[in-house]
Each structure stands twice: as structure tokens, then as C-alpha cells.
Amino acid sequence: MNFPVFDLHCDTALAMLGKDFLAEGTLKKNQFHIDLERASALPGYAQCFACFTTPREKFPGRFTVEDMFERELAVILREVNANGDLIQLIYEPKEIELNRNKGLMSAILTIEGPAGFGYNPDLLENLSQIGFRISTLGWNEKNPLTGSHVTGGGLTELGKEYVRQAQKNGILIDVSHISDEAFWDIMDITEAPIIASHSNSRKVWDHSRNITDEMFLAICKTGGVAGFNMCAEFVGENPTLDTACDHIIHFLELDPDGKHIALGGDLDGISHMPEGFTGIQDYPKFAEKLLERGVSEDTVMDIFWNNALGVITQCCM
After folding, report:
1. CA-CA distances (angstroms) from residue 307 to 41, 53, 67?
2. E-strand spans in 167-256?
3. Pure H helices in 102-169
4. Does domain 5-315 fall into CATH 3.20.20.140?
5. 49/9 Cα distance (integer angstroms)
6. Taking a C-beta distance cutoff of 8 angstroms, is the pair 201, 216 a contact?
7. What is the pTM of this model?
8. pLDDT averages per 10-residue partition of the chain, 317 residues
9. Per-domain residue ranges of the chain
């Protein structure tokens, strides 16, 4: 069966921006992991497009981390506007299902690392008005908000204020990339569902970017979701689609109703994926493999579409 796809995380904006920041990439047809031509074969597609920034990035010429954020946002808006007959930027969750019914794809703006606007929680209200609906607190570095899975270290006071302001303004907090300590600090203060947009099971594959069973259950308790990441490094050794299914099936052992598992492929932000998966066009193969492994059609539909749509709808009205 061919299911609609709601993917919580990609780095296609960064891919389109290019190493020279000239933003010459296109969304309609390209050599990246995602383009609209391939996605149009799906019976519905909603993609969260991340604006990724980190102070660790080496910038070409005189460009700054702020330029990186602004140019990624600009290239997303440019490409969505240029392909308005295929995809629309959404501001309200109800637009996603309306678009699917009209044969249109949906684009959702997200933040991966707030370095591009100085980690400033006072700017989140404006960013929400622009259309941003999800935010991590960082990437792989320690920053003014939090420690990362690489560095360790908990949430700072500024980080706590960032969480509060994001949730106040209808922006989902995404715990991917942060440290274990910061994860639990967020759980102590959250007043809304929490997501891990592109994080797998640490029980299945022991990597610090993945989440423990206790973390997954805590996310479930908030009403959030964990999005499955196609990065081979986080899936297993020489992984296949069967290995990818192992993560989903383990999460289903913890969440038998399957209401807190989603997709967050990290496409265009990764180099290696499980054997048999090369881009957006291969999500049907993943669905078929899940069905072969005994996951029901209803549960696959929840994982591929309903669960992500549900948490976005609950938090981002």
C-alpha cells in the first residue's frame, strides 16, 4: 500500500542553499533526497523544512550564522512560492488535511538550532507568526540554552525561558540532539507535548542521538511523538529496512497503540541510509516492510501521517 507521508524533519533547505550560500538549488526536481516530483507520487505529503544553524559551521565569504538562517528561510519561501500548484506553506494545522484533499503538498517551517537568531526567546512570537511550528534547542554543541548529546550539560535558565516562550507561542519543543540531562530538565517544566522529531531507539542501537525507553515513555506521557530517523549511524551496523523496522517495533512494544511514533527522516542532512532507502520516493518500501513485519495498516497510517498531524494540531492552533 502507498501511504501519505508526514515527515517531521529534513535539511533540504540547507541542501538548496549550497556550500556557497548562493541558494541555487531547486525543490521541484533535484539530486537531493527530497524533491516535489518524486514526492508527488505519494497520496499526500507534509514536510517539516528545518532552518538549520550552528556556530560550528564554517561560513563562506562574509556570511554569518544569521545570514545562514535568513537565507535558508528565503530559499524555502522562494521554492514554495515557485511551486504553488504543488505545495503550500501552512500556518494552521487544518490546512494540511485540506491540502491533501486538494492534491497539494504542505510545507511546515521548523528551527534546528536557534543560533541564527541569537538563541533569543523574545523573537519566538514573531517567528511563530512567520509560520515556524517546531524548534530544537540546539545541535551537537553546547550553547546558551542547553548542553548537547555530545557535550552533556543541562538546560540553562535562558533555555527554560526559551521552552516557556516557545510553548506560549504554539511552537513545539523538539528534544533531538540535546543531552539526557537537558531532556529531563525539559520534562520537569513542559506544559505541552514534547517531540523528538528525528531520534530512534537507544535500546535497539546504542547511540547518544537516540532516546532511551524511559525518554520515549516520557514523551508519550506528554502526548508527543518520536520521529524515526533514516541516518544509518543511528539505525544500526550496515542497516537495512528490516533494521529500521526493529526500532519501530520496539517502540510499539512500549506504545502498543502506536500513537506516539512518527517519521523524521533527516533527509538531505545525512549521507548514509539503510540499504533499500535512498530518498523520499522509498517511504512506500518502508511501509511495505512494516506490513510484512506484522504492523497493521491502521498503525502504519498512524506512524506515517496521523500521529504527526495530531500533535501539530494539538499544539499549534
Report:
1. 21, 27, 34
2. 172-174, 194-195, 226-228
3. 124-130, 157-168
4. yes
5. 6
6. yes
7. 0.98
8. 95 94 93 98 98 85 92 98 98 96 98 98 98 97 97 98 98 98 98 98 98 98 98 98 98 98 98 98 98 98 98 87
9. 5-315
